[in-house]
Amino acid sequence: MSDYGTELLRRQLNDLAKNPIDLVSVGLVDDSNLYDWEILVMGPDGTLFEGGFFKARLVFPHDFPNMPPTMTFTSEMWHPNVYEDGKVCISILHPPGEDAFNSQETAEERWRPILGVEQILVSVISMLSDPNDESPANLDAAVMWRNDKPAFKKKVRQIVRKSQEDC
């Protein structure tokens, strides 16, 4: 764990405490470890996730900021861009550079060391508002999103209710 990465995370956590992002609350899982954050994402108004309270973990690698963190919802989530285990799959969380196996995203869309936690969290809020079913992490959710919107909406309403009960 680099001194630079540790200091950068300390600064970003303090910045988010002073200037919070709408719909997101952040904190440390353990005050002695700046590399493991707990996140609470509130479902954006006007989306299927509205009213939900979704818990997640943001875990930073030892070589942060050169490599991106991993974000995993610990609350149940039904979304084309979230794996069944809760891991979020969006471009900003993918390692830097081109990916020969994924022509859907450019290097500019992927992680770069100049990006920070705020950009990640804004991207996750955007993901909830506008799922990308072209490159799904959860194929079943993507197929349901495309082919059976009423069933998708029903399933998301169920997880929103569950998230409200769990908070």
TrEMBL record:
Name the keywords, alphabetized. Answer: ATP-binding, Nucleotide-binding, Transferase, Ubl conjugation pathway
Report the active site residues: C89
Q: Which domain of life is it from?
A: Eukaryota
Matches recorded under InterPro entries: Ub_conjugating_enzyme, UBC, UBQ-conjugating_AS, UBQ-conjugating_enzyme/RWD
Under Pfam families, the record lists: UQ_con
Instruction: Please report the stretch or stretches of sequence annotated as the UBC core domain.
Output: 4-165
User: Do the record's keywords include Calcium?
Assistant: no
Q: Which N-terminal stretch is annotated as signal sequence? A: none
Query: What is this enzyme's EC?
Result: 2.3.2.23
One of the record's GO molecular function terms: ATP binding
Return the similarity comment: Belongs to the ubiquitin-conjugating enzyme family.
Please identify the protein, giving its name as recorded.
Answer: E2 ubiquitin-conjugating enzyme
Protein source organism: Phaeodactylum tricornutum (strain CCAP 1055/1)
Q: What is the lineage of its organism?
A: Eukaryota, Sar, Stramenopiles, Ochrophyta, Bacillariophyta
